Amino acid sequence: MKNIYVIGIGLIGGSLALDIKANNNSAQVYGIDTNDAHLKEALELNIIDKTATYEDLKNADFVILSVPVDVAIVELPKILDAIHDDTLIIDVGSTKLPICNAIKDHERRRNFLAAHPIAGTEFSGPKAAINNLFQNKTNIICEVEKTAFKLQEKALKLFSELGMRIRYMNPEAHDKHIAYVSHLSHISAFMLGKTVIEKEKNERDIFDMAGSGFESTVRLAKSSPAMWTPIFKQNRENVIETLDEYITNLKRFKGYMEADDFDQIYNEMENTNHIKDILKGIQ
Amino acid sequence: MKNIYVIGIGLIGGSLALDIKANNNSAQVYGIDTNDAHLKEALELNIIDKTATYEDLKNADFVILSVPVDVAIVELPKILDAIHDDTLIIDVGSTKLPICNAIKDHERRRNFLAAHPIAGTEFSGPKAAINNLFQNKTNIICEVEKTAFKLQEKALKLFSELGMRIRYMNPEAHDKHIAYVSHLSHISAFMLGKTVIEKEKNERDIFDMAGSGFESTVRLAKSSPAMWTPIFKQNRENVIETLDEYITNLKRFKGYMEADDFDQIYNEMENTNHIKDILKGIQ
User: Fold this and answer.
1) pLDDT on residue A205
2) How many domains are contained in chain B?
3) Which residue in chain B is spatially nearest to A269 when comparing CA positions?
4) pTM of the predicted model, to two decimals?
5) A28-32 and B28-32 strand pairing
6) B163 and B186 assigned to the same domain
7) Residue-number span of the structural domain to which A218 is assigned
8) What is the DSSP letter of A164?
9) What residues contact residue A15 under an 8 Å CB cut-off, 6+ apart?
10) Which of A58, A161, A199, A208 gives 20 to 30 Å between its CA and that of A81?
């Protein structure tokens, strides 16, 4: 793989570019982005070697699409039109059903692999890109059977070089489960942040009294609204379901407190404590 | 301060003992705990030098009370009865109004200082004790004017050696604000963990798909129910208020999603993003 095109040079696209360059001396990484300031930053930070346009995609061996998920479903068909027959294109968005549906009948469907590397931080933009972000992280691949054999192989080699473990799922299952383990966490953090900020207009008070526990729980509320709004929109049904269940659990907890049933409060916490064991494997 | 008695040798009591021993060569640290296994562990880990009983408290220069908050309000009057006139006793519990009320008319009220060092991890017991846990952390002191001058001075010297910054508040304000920045975070994490565990009976799925974002948001769900149940009980009114507001915010967010009002979803997140700046100061 010599000519790599990264469309969307942010945290994920930029971090992928950094690792690919580190692993392949001969790789030339081209950046495509609607944000000129990000392109400039990515050049300065040596994340990309050159900027490019869709017209150059005919020279691409490998394309990474790492843009907000609403942009991805519009752009992916155009990108498939622009590449040549042996190009591999991978998208790395946080929802998988809408993008798989968007190109299911495209004549170059077999050039595309749908992936979701479960990695990231609460930061965004090229400055947020870091080396080895994907080491020991999970990568969910959807509809692998719809990608050409040779390109599957290329993709797996790449993920292996990045240090990722692979899990195969259908896009429906991906979107349903990820709503629980990722999308809900973001909303719970955003609403926790909102609740505290609303109450504590005097921000010095928050700062002075908040400890590392609050910081950890609210961390995801730093995330980019531009990235997350389209994710929630595309995964609307699943996210609403998780919110229903989360709100029900919170109301039940509040109900036990109102009823002074602190034995049940104890049980609620104790029954959830085994999250310890579940989390042990997460890096 | 030569003879230090730590009542409750867990994460906080144990970490205080470690730092005090590191800062004062001549300090003898005695441990009192109803849990014999913890006492044994604390001896083995050199967190304490010797075990002791309440009868020995007459020899104490300084007593730290670091037990669950429901135990603290029962034990503190007995401890005040057992000490001598120049002993300083500090409690470090997460609620402050009930304990201040419990001893407000005690003849040795001036020997007591109510504190809340905002430090900790999700772990508990003597094995969780670590050095320098309190460095650069906030310590809330309540009703300082009710503590004897000389003992205030001793306490401040200790906190200064631990590297803490001091904030003075009345116990009502402490309990109200801490409900927002600490107690609510714990409930949001516990209920997030519960929601995901209920849904994902097959725990391999959680493990494989969950990333560092989930880990961070749910981290506090590892916390000890034995410690947290009495905190929620003592701070019942304030915690119920925070839960009401948090649930209202979550329902509103869900309402915007149901109404397909994703401009408002964007705004909700953007308006909360400045939590970044608020959190910058938290270690």
Assistant:
1) 66
2) 2
3) B225
4) 0.92
5) unpaired
6) no
7) 174-279
8) P
9) A119, A129, A130, A131, A133, A134
10) A161
> What are the residues whose beta carbons fall under 8 Å from the beta carbon of B97, sequence distance 6 or more?
B171, B172, B174, B175, B234
Indicate which CATH number applies to the domain containing B129: 3.40.50.720
Instruction: Give the residue from A169, A203, A234 where a domain finishes.
Output: A169
Q: Is A129 in the same domain as A218?
A: no
pLDDT at B183 over 50: yes
The separation between CA A78 and the C-alpha centre of its own chain, rounded to angstroms, equals 22
ipTM of the complex: 0.92
Contact between B282 and A212 using a beta-carbon 8 Å cutoff: yes
A206·B278 Cβ contact <8 A: yes
Are A143 and A249 part of one and the same domain? no
Chain A interface, mutation test: which of B206, B214, B261, B268, most A Cβ atoms within 10 Å? B214
Q: What is the pLDDT of residues A248-257, one digit of tens each?
A: 999 999 999 9
CATH code for the domain of B185: 1.10.3660.10
In which band, very low, low, confident or very high, does the pLDDT at A283 lie, cut at 50, 70 and 90? very low
- Which one of B233, B266, B268 has the shortest CB-CB distance to A262? B233
Residues A269 and A162 in one domain: no
Q: Which of A165-179, A234-248, B194-208, B238-252 has the lowest mean pLDDT?
A: B194-208
Find the closest chain A residue to B183 by CA distance. A214
| Chain B neighbors of A177, CB-CB under 8 A | 200, 205, 209
In terms of Cα–Cα distance, which of A119, A107, A108 is closest to A66?
A119
Domain boundary among A129, A154, A169: A169
Mean pLDDT across A20-25:
93
Minimum Cα–Cα distance from B280: chain A residue? A207
